[in-house]
Amino acid sequence: MAFLPSQRAHLPRVAQGGSGVPGTSAAPLPVDLRRAIVAGPFPAGGWAIRRRGVASGLLGGTVTSSVETITGGRPDAPPPARRPRRRGDRDAWPLLLPALLPVALFSVYPLLQGLYLGFTDSRAGRNVVTSFTGLDNYAALLGNELFWSSFRIGLIWAFSVTVLQFVAGLGLAMLLDLDLRLRWLARTLALIPWAMPPVVIAIMWKLLLNPNYGMAGNVNWLGEFSTALPAVIVVGVWAGMPQTTITLLAGLQSIDASLHEAAAVDGAGTWRRFWHVTLPGLRPVAVAVTTLDFIWAFNSFGLVYVLTAGGPGGQTMLPMLFAYNEAFRYGNFGYAAAMGNVMVVLIVGFLLFYLRSQLRRQA
Amino acid sequence: MQGRRLAVAMQGVAVLGAAALLGACATTPIDDEQGPATGPVTLTFQSLAFQEPSVAATKKIVDDWNAAHPDITVNLSQGSWDAVHDQLVTQFQGGTAPDVIHDESADIAGFARQGYLADLAPHIPAATRAAVPQGVWDAVTVDGKTVAAPTLLQTYVVFANTALLQQAGVALPTGPTLTWDALAAAAKQATTPSAKGLGWGLRQPTATVVGLGPNFDAKFFTGSGDTADVVIGDAELEVPRRIHQMAFTDGSLDPTSLTQSGTDVVKAFLGGRYAMIVAGSFIAQQIKEGAPPGFSWTVLPPLAGTSANQAANPQTLSVPADSPNVAQAAAFIDHYMQAQNLAAVAQGEWLIPTSAAARDAVTTATGGKDGWGATLAGADNLVTAPFQTVTKYPQWKDQIATPALQRYLANQIDLPTLRTQLADGWKQVAG
């Protein structure tokens, strides 16, 4: 409650706006003081109180230090460069346990089991004994051309979906950020694809793209070799637009308007302001949303499974579909889990590279 | 600071990704060692019958059984052909498969080899066994065990829009069979600017190519089980070659239809866009239901190359080896196999019942109308095909044959390349 960073961020503004002349304790207390007090102490005074514990004079101490902060007391005290490690972390473990137990049971355990499965010869069969086979699966996978060609398709799909989704989502977000008429309606409509299950989206697009009675002309979008993957990518972009748009819209709204004003005063045109104010301001959000979009796109299954099931001629055989078939059509659970492991390692490696370069630029 | 943020981000990313990738693969086999049940038992029967009349017929069979057998209650559940294989893989693994499993013989051969299916031979009465030809029993015999009861058979038939054929001056073929040459000629003659002579839903081409292969004496495989080898010669390539020729040389077969499902093509057929379509006989039900007023159609005689043979891939009813009530489940299957019951389902599904008595019952009930005469005549041409007993056939079908045939039928590769891909792909799958 008291230590959320976003709330602490209110304090300086309150202090400036309310106290009038810094350093004068006689200045009238701001109306926002209660909020400021609840919001907790500003660094310098606060840490000591927190260390003293909850029971011992939290209220009194907090009020004193807050008033000190707000009214400009001890203005020279340097803010701590880094949060000292809290002893409370250790004490909190028993409280976290009820929340961690289901996570461990339903998330960590299956995850580890799945990882382990990739090193066994687990397969379908009655009373089949599963044995540890080390890296055999991976050696076999290395020579599996079909898997690597599906991996290549998966990368094309994930990259295209992520990039197009970002570009289209950014455009839509900037449009929705403008003060348009019926903006509330447009923003609501933009969310609709989110509310639809992937299978429903796929069936709907299948009908739209049907060459006999669809609305997209007489082109056999999902059946032609040259158009199947692009068509599936378009559907993928459409399905993922809402979360990208809404996240970017939130990012746009968090950019201080005064920066735009200042840039405009300095004579920057629309394009320059977009390039030098909007984009840098969006960077953290953009990095997060493209990272997630990439993972989601790479792992998406239901959409393409229903749209094309990997056809025609394996043109849309994403690695997820490939691994699914290996496990649930041919019953090679161990081999399929090994494919999953390889995909995780490669995707994590790629994202590590991406995030590192992005965060370095940001820092 | 940056390092830690990166580390946290990466942890989140790794957990998310890995969980999504692998969560579904984690399975633990469950072994329930239950003895034979005594007293009242409850069986689950998953039926895949999907056409309205056959769903009703199946329900009636179950209701009749439950009324006559208060101590063996059968619960009917509905499955779908699209999902049945994947569903059974997980259900067998988890020990939750239904007691009576509806599937087809090409699909259950793998399960039988994995030991999941009970041997029904001791439970099937001699009269039921004698009613079905031995060749059909062979299709459901794996390693000497009768792993299923064969119920219905599908053949590929040619449906014709008689009005369009007459307009084009094509005489309706009579005689016992329709040769591929005659089909190609009729399709060419019936092709007009507004309608193609032939539509053929081959989105999943392998089953059709392999099923019609015996028309030209195609084998596709020698041997059986794990020791099988692929054979791709001129005979095996004849069906795809002729389809390709009609689509890309004659221009009488709509290439778009080759990328669509049978159901999609039926809609275009009913809309008068094709004079003829080739499809499984069960499509008749959809034509009957969806035909606009005044739409006149018929089933042409069975297709023939060097013979009119087609591969017999019967629908099946099986019992899991782990079911505690194999005997009771087999008794229900025997009830299902009785001529009247089998005939009712077959009529609703527009498929050929495996027993002669049931075929006679269908003939009596329908009077041979709506193409039933030609459809039932196909029963004599069904032969056992080697592919059904090949363990790796499903994987070769999905990963090799289907994409390769799709490429060939989209005119992306030529016939020699198709041959190479089909043969080399087998090595990769079986290797």
3D architecture notes:
The complex is a heterodimer of chains A (363) and B (431). Among the domains of chain A are: 5-70, no CATH class; 144-331, Orthogonal Bundle (MetI-like fold), CATH 1.10.3720.10. Helices cover 68% and strands 0% of the residues of chain A. Chain A has 17 helices and no strands. Chain A has helices at 5-8, 10-19, 33-39, 43-52, 58-70, 88-91, 93-117, 136-142, 145-177, 183-191, 198-208, 225-253, 257-265, 270-299, 302-307, 319-328, 333-362. Chain A starts with a helix and ends with a helix. With 431 residues, chain B is α/β, with parallel strands linked by helices. Chain B is 47% helix and 15% strand. In chain B, strand 11 and strand 12 form a beta hairpin. The radius of gyration of chain B is 24 Å and the shape is globular. Chain B starts with a helix and ends with a helix. Residues 12-37 of chain B have low confidence and may be disordered. Chains A and B meet through helix 7, helix 14, helix 16 and helix 17 of A and helix 1, helix 3, helix 11 and helix 17 of B.
The DSSP helix count of chain A reads: 17
Bin the helical content of chain A: 55-70%
The CATH class assignment of the domain at 144-331 in chain A is: Mainly Alpha
Q: Of all protein chain pairs, which has the greatest interface, and how many residues does each chain bring to it?
A: A-B, 61 and 56 residues
CATH names the topology of the largest domain in chain B as D-Maltodextrin-Binding Protein, domain 2
Unreliable spans of chain A: 1-75
Q: Give the rounded overall mean pLDDT of chain A.
A: 78
- Name the overall outline of chain B: globular
Brief write-up:
The complex is a heterodimer of chains A (363) and B (431). In chain A, 68% of the residues lie in helices and 0% in strands. Chain A has helices at 5-8, 10-19, 33-39, 43-52, 58-70, 88-91, 93-117, 136-142, 145-177, 183-191, 198-208, 225-253, 257-265, 270-299, 302-307, 319-328, 333-362.
